[in-house]
Amino acid sequence: MEAHTATLPVRSRESTGARAWKWLKRNAIVIYGVLAIAYMLIPIGLIVIFSFNDPAGKFNFTWQGFTLTHWAHPFQIAELTDALLLSLRLAALATLISTVLGTLVALALVRYDFFGRHAANYLIVIPTATPEVVLGASLLSLFLIYGLALGFTTLLIAHVMFCISFVVIVVRSRLIGFDRSLEEAAQDLGANPLTTFRKITLPLIWPGIVAGALLAFALSIDDFVVSNFTAGTEVTFPLYIFGAAQRGIPVQVYIIATILFAVTLLAMVFTVWQQRRADQLAAMRPEQDV
Amino acid sequence: MSHEHWVALRRRLIPYGLLGPGILWLILFFVVPLYFMGRLSLESGIFPEFRFDWTFSNYSDAFKAYDTQFFRAFQYSAVATIIGLLIAYPLAYAIAFRGGRWKNAMLLAVIAPFFTTYLIRTLAWETILSDNGFVVNTLQTLGLISSDGRLLATGPAVIAGLTYNFLPFMILPIYASLERMDASLVEAAKDLYSSSRQAFLKVTLPLSMPGVVAGTLLTFIPATGDYINAQFLGGAQQAMIGNVIQSLYLKQTDYPAAAALSFILMAVMLLIVFIYIRFAGSEALMGEEVPD
Questions:
Q1: Which of A102, A107, A86 is nearest to A220 (CA)?
Q2: What's the mean pLDDT when you consider all of chain A?
Q3: Using one digit for the tens of pLDDT, what is the confidence trace for A68-113?
């Protein structure tokens, strides 16, 4: 206490420079964080800006002038729109299948002790530790040997395969902190296993399932490498961009990227906002303990 | 008695029923393809006439022909992982402990790059680093690179691309482990007269290790096999092993060599991951063991 009162007058006599230095030292990490985030957003800024570019040639690499003409026709290029639609269809199906399969696997791994559980755990993790180029190459080897025609089916098989592991990992992490006594209570009150699952388990792990599904969707729609090996003549959105990068990227690519970015951002902000509201509502209930 | 017997049997079979479809999918389309790739890697001949005859020399031939690209991939990826860790850790720390009411917004900004396609992000960097671009012009004016110097088609450009593209995978696990940490532990350390530095080194850093392990693996693994960054930001002199495998499979149709290289890559990768996990702990990857 005495030491404190002794230092006080010294502190107030500190020069502005010293105080600024102190402030800087205390907030250096925050300033660094803001700079790092700015760095992460640079390419996004460039994409948005270049969607208004009016390139003279076919290469959209230098700024030529502002125009809205391309924004008036974002879906003008038929192949690009087709590629986008194919990617959306593929991602939706791959998400649906991998989320259902992955959730069931996660339930088995966390809830039950059985012969082969350890091996199953490995089988889930190893694909995530395998470079994508190996996943694509090995699938192509299989399809080549069986003479299976490459196309939408092979794409779907491949996408579901690399999504499953991630869904399992996300849902599993949600299941691990799960309070089993809630299920026991429901069964004590006479609920059968199916009702218990529907009314207790599913609502509680639902956020994990949604997170897993979102991750699967994001992985699928963004996948280039595995698709590169398994698409045949089908062209997904990333495959279109890869091809166009050699011929020259039309402005529409940047426009569609900007639209996709805005839509995803709004959806995320909405989710975060809803989550916060739900948390606030939960905080008002006195007995909450989850 | 017989009824109870059935209940017990059903209970034993339930996990296999739940597991079945997903595991079957992984066996059919992950394990079996690896087997066929293994077969392919031991065949000889020229497209489309391949014969399976245990040609083990495919492995040594392919490795000898492409060892440069192989080592380059590991080198670029390792550098990108280290730089990524140096950028990500302080940022994750800032978000977790100093974010305050901006925490969600900062997290949103961290995952924002995922809202645009990987290839477009890389193309954006190609534009930024392009020969007539702002960055190159500034560096030339400042005399940091020669007047005809360029950034594209250099190793640093590829490493910069790899670092950027996998950064969220580094930040998020580190953030998650810092966020889970009990802040009172640091207070306790300080009450026991440890300096901020000591408290960080002895308490915060060890507790965030699972996040660091997960983050470095999630960066290193995909970065090593990547061929987009080398394709868009590098030139022929920056080709990585992924570029070689892609080209051998899809352009030159030299399947045995491509399959052999894929196997070498996968084996080395798994070995590195295994050793790394031995040293750094496995909870990040394998999850907790919670038997009923």
A1: A86
A2: 85
A3: 888 888 888 888 999 999 999 999 999 999 999 999 999 898 888 8
Q: Are residues A25 and A87 in the same domain?
A: no
CATH number, domain at A245?
1.10.3720.10
Token pair recorded at residue B97: 């402990």
A216: Cα separation from own chain's centroid: 7
* Residues of chain B positioned with their CB less than 8 A from the CB of A30: 94, 98
B243 to chain A: closest CA residue: A133
Do the chains contact at A112 and B127, CB–CB below 8 Å?
no
Which chain B residues are Cβ-neighbours of A40 within 8 angstroms?
Answer: 109-110, 112-113, 164, 167-168
* pTM for this entry: 0.86
Instruction: Determine the residue among B10, B13, B16, B18 to mutate to test chain A binding: the one whose Cβ has the most chain A Cβ atoms within 10 Å.
Output: B18
Count of structural domains within chain A: 2
Q: Is B79 exposed, middle or buried (0-12, 13-18, 19+ CB in 10 A)?
A: middle
Nearest CA in chain B to A27: B98
The pair of three-digit structure tokens given for residue A5, joined into one six-digit string = 């009162």
Q: How far is CA B28 from CA A119, A142, A227, B170, B249, in A?
A: 16, 10, 18, 31, 21
- Listed as ranges, residues in chain B with pLDDT below 50 are 284, 287-292
Quickly list DSSP for B189-250. HHHTT--HHHHIIIIIHHHTHHHHHHHHHHHHHHHHH--HHHHHH--GGG--HHHHHHHHHH
Nearest to A264 among B94, B115, B255 (CB): B115
Q: Do A131 and B269 touch (CB under 8 A)?
A: yes
Of the partner residues B21, B33, B132, the one whose CB lies closest to the CB of residue A141: B33
Q: Which domain holds residue A7?
A: 2-50
The reply to whether residue A144 touches residue B40, judged by beta carbons under 8 angstroms, is yes
A32 and A125 assigned to the same domain = no
- In angstroms, the CA B55 to CA B64 distance is 15
Q: Residue B15 and residue A114: Cβ atoms within 8 Å? A: yes
CB B220 within 8 A of CB B74: no
Which member of B124, B221, B290 has the closest CB to residue A47?
B124
Q: Which two tokens stand for residue B105?
A: 């917004």
Residue B41 lies in a domain: no
Number of H helices, E strands in chain A: 13, 0
What is the rounded distance in angstroms from the CA atom of residue A61 to the CA atom of residue A64?
Answer: 9
Strand partners, B44: B51
